[in-house]
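User: Good morning. I'm curious how zinc ion would be positioned relative to this chain. Could you predict the structure with it bound?
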Amino acid sequence: MSGFCRKSLCLFFALVFIFALSVPAFAASARTTVYRTKTGEHYHTGDCRFLGKSKIKTTLDAAVNEFHLTPCSVCNPPAFETEAEEAAIPTTEEAAATKTTRPANGEVLFSKNKTRPSTLTFENGTNYDCLVTMTNKSGTDVLQFYVRKGKDATIDIPTGVLTLNIAYGSTWKNGEELFGKNTQYDSGEEALDIGKGEDWTFTFG
Ligand SMILES: [Zn+2]
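Assistant: Good morning! Here's the predicted structure, ligand included:
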């Protein structure tokens, strides 16, 4: 099943690989559906009260980059990471290793790629927090993110042939020890060949 998982717990954790091209509805990717009006300067979620007169379905990418709209402050539609958030993402694993507090759901601990044109929705069906590392063909770790137990997270990811390596456990210690002595490991046995603008889904548990 996997290169890392050898212990009996593997029996309980059949890794289910569901890779599907699908648009996640709950996170901000370029193709997330949002709504605009004929004349307004903001974009909205589908149920916003400002959509009474006109309601035009569009994508987050078009709303922001084509129509130059900003998110409505009433309905709080999905938004791209702000430049400040983007700039705060460490570019090396060394920076991420100092992380002592439990990371947020969907937090990117480091990313070596500035451009991440595709998405991966990681569905964590287990009762463990997951630290997911994406590794390229030459064995370099290029991206690392955190998904809390029982949660889903949609992450902007780079293109290329990438493997998922998952460390999971109950209580986060820090970026060096991960979940301490009880850290368990699993990995996707097949590399993903991620093309530009693709939305992947991975189900764990
Ligand atoms: Zn609104």
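The two ends are 13 Å apart (CA to CA). The CA atoms of residues 4 and 186 lie 5 Å apart.
Let me know if you'd like a different ligand tried.
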